[in-house]
Design a protein that fits this description.
- By secondary structure, the protein is an alpha+beta fold.
- It has 4 domains: 89 residues, no CATH class; 116 residues, Tetrahydropterin Synthase, Chain A (2-Layer Sandwich), CATH 3.30.479.30; 69 residues; 34 residues, no CATH class.
- 52% of the residues lie in helices and 25% in strands.
- The strands form 6 sheets. Strands 8, 11, 12 and 13 form a 4-stranded antiparallel sheet that branches.
- A hairpin with a 3-residue loop joins β9 and β10.
- The chain is elongated, with a radius of gyration of 57 Å.
- It starts with a helix and ends in a 9-residue tail after the last strand.
């Protein structure tokens, strides 16, 4: 039965409006159908176009999945993909932090201390309070994505990965002496901990690389602080006494060396003088010997006068008056030629 038969006409009136209920002609129906199909195709094409192009920001990487299957990693820039492929982007240049012992509440202003994380045991079974930070980056986005998308919450994943880093750091502390960590061993501790944590993350494939391990604070527990201060004071007093003793020893040794050098110089000068005197005497004796061979009387006479002159220089002259039997002592009155 046709609508025209029901209404007894191809048109009917409703609320003053006239409606034509004549079925469309086949040609007009085909045109309408093609228009609808074209519109649907245009929508599909537009949807595919918007889903096929994506941009990876500077310093980031993107991983692609097709129906849950990993299909690759893309670097920064504009890329094309299948419309049904899913893209997950990661900033691989951002430096993130694992904080231990001292958590940042307000960057640069407020921090929260956690003594349970700070307490660590050294190789000589002593306790230190250490606050430290592990700086890290995403090195492999796919591994990092898999590690952080297991069937647990994000906080549990964070605690799991940071717990691995904390365990390795504690192992390094346990391999070093208490005194070394407090004084000169902080750099060694940081380097060794970084290497150990890096090896652990690499072997487990968590997609994280350690940038640096920084020790922010090392101190002794408050209960033993006074004892530690007393020990440090005693060590400083000991070091001061040793330095003073070494300074005195160095000064004394230098003075002794100076005196020894003066004595050696005097001895050398005495030796040179004696050799010169002996050389002069021997030279004179040789000359006298040559002259004695030629004129022995003259040489004997000269030697006699020289010896008498030397003797006279040492005499005090006394005149004796035989008649009065009294002596006149002239003392040190010089004698001619004396």
């Amino acid at each position: 039965m046709k609508l025209s038969d029901f209404f007894n006409s191809d048109k009917f009136r409703f609320n003053g409006d006239i409606f034509d209920i004549t079925p469309p002609k086949p040609k007009n129906f085909k045109i309408a159908f093609k228009a609808i199909v074209a519109a649907i195709m245009a929508v599909i094409v537009a949807y595919c176009a918007t889903r096929s192009f994506y941009t990876v920001p500077l310093g980031s990487q993107a991983i692609l999945f097709s129906f849950g299957r990993y299909i690759g990693t893309e670097e920064q820039g504009l890329h094309f993909k299948a419309p049904w492929a899913e893209v997950v982007k990661f900033d691989v240049q951002e430096v993130r932090r694992f904080e231990f012992g001292e958590k940042t509440e307000v960057p640069g202003r407020a921090y929260v201390q956690d003594e349970s994380e700070q307490k660590m045991v050294t190789a000589d079974s002593k306790i230190l309070l250490i606050s430290w930070v592990a700086q890290w980056k995403i090195s492999d986005p796919y591994q990092y994505f898999i590690t952080n998308n297991v069937e647990v919450d994000a906080e549990s994943n964070y605690r799991l990965i940071s717990g691995l880093a904390e365990a390795d750091f504690r192992k390094e502390v346990a391999s070093m002496r208490y005194e070394d960590i407090l004084t000169t061993g902080k750099v060694t501790l940081s380097a060794n901990a970084k290497a150990r944590i890096t090896n652990t993350f690499k072997s487990l494939g968590v997609g994280i690389s350690i940038v640096d391990v920084l020790i922010s604070d090392v101190k002794v527990p408050p209960s033993v602080q006074q004892s530690y201060n007393d020990v440090e004071t005693a060590k400083q007093a000991k070091a001061s006494a040793i330095n003073e003793a070494e300074a005195y020893a160095n000064k004394t040794v230098e003075e002794a060396k100076g005196k020894a050098q003066v004595a050696m110089n005097n001895a050398e000068a005495y030796k040179i003088n004696k050799i010169a005197d002996a050389t002069a005497i021997s030279t004179r004796l040789l000359s006298l010997n040559e002259m004695y061979v030629t004129n022995p009387g003259l040489v004997r006479t000269n030697l006699w006068y020289e010896n008498v002159g030397d003797i006279m220089k040492q005499l005090n002259v006394v005149f004796v008056d035989g008649s009065s039997k009294s002596n006149i002592f002239l003392g040190d009155v010089p004698i001619i030629g004396r």
